[in-house]
Amino acid sequence: MTMKTKLFICLGALLGVAAAVQQVGWPLAKLTVHVVGEQGEPIPGADVTISFREKLSDKNAWAVGKTDDKGDFTAEGHSDRRLGGFVRKVGYYDSGTGWTIFKDQVLGKWQPWDSVTDVCLRPIGNPVALYAKQVQAEIPMLDQPCGYDLEKGDWVAPHGRGVKSDITFKVLRDYKDRSNFTAEAQVTFAQPLDGVVRMTAPVYARKSAFCWERSAAETGYAAPDAIRFISQDQTTHVERKMTFDNSNDREQGYFFRVRTVEENGRIIAANYGKITGDIAIEPRSQKTCLIFFTYYFNPTSLDRNIEWDPKRNLLQGLNHEETPTAP
Predict the structure, then answer these.
(1) Distance in angstroms (rounded) separating the CA atoms of residues 55 and 279
(2) pTM of the shown model
(3) What is the DSSP pairing of strand 167-177 with strand 146-149?
(4) Alpha helices per DSSP H over the chain
């Protein structure tokens, strides 16, 4: 047998293997979704949907079913290495399952076979009407304090319709061009006892549509540090936005307290709320500086409830980009 013939045989064998793999399609995966409540109790009767793959294509093949008395739903199907889905039940917030990612396969099955992912369904508690907005606004003036009214959803006059300076931003910027500038945003509050407290989404709630605590913190409020954004030279990679901690972490945010009134050492009036994610600036606007943050403001004095009913946004006339969707 000549060398050329051997090469043709080897090539034919490889093509045969490739054709066999194409015919088999995606490997099989088996996943059990274990659904529990906030106290770890199993939740039966929850609707579970898992996204698999069709055998010989990239199209999704949905597995749908309900959890049993142990809170479990198990499904099997083809997968392209990862599985995800969502869980729903009346009276609870929707939740994602997160991603189950496989690394190895044995005999056409992803390992570990019959993986288990835990999902916490959070009951809908006492959602209330709040002022909620995704702010994407330009700072009206540089080098001057600019107040923002959380109830009006606008800058304080003369820059907007706002009346009370709940949060004040002062941007200092030395701008030569997009690759040569310095910028700092100072954040202050009107009252000495106003401010923010760093909040973190509870671990068990991070897959839920409602991933925050239901009530704002009672104490610990203070003004945050300034946002600093400094370019070095034209070769330095600069992120589009800069935040207090430079994390842009969905699981981080702030409780805030504004309009605080104290009498005889006791707080007799205050409004609470939350800022989800971080406060970010984009200092390369040609005019001043852009600022981004999403907030929820409770107008009832001393009420720390920040569980929002998305159907009752007290801010009217917002466009799609300004309207939050998460409670």
Answers:
(1) 45
(2) 0.84
(3) antiparallel
(4) 3-24
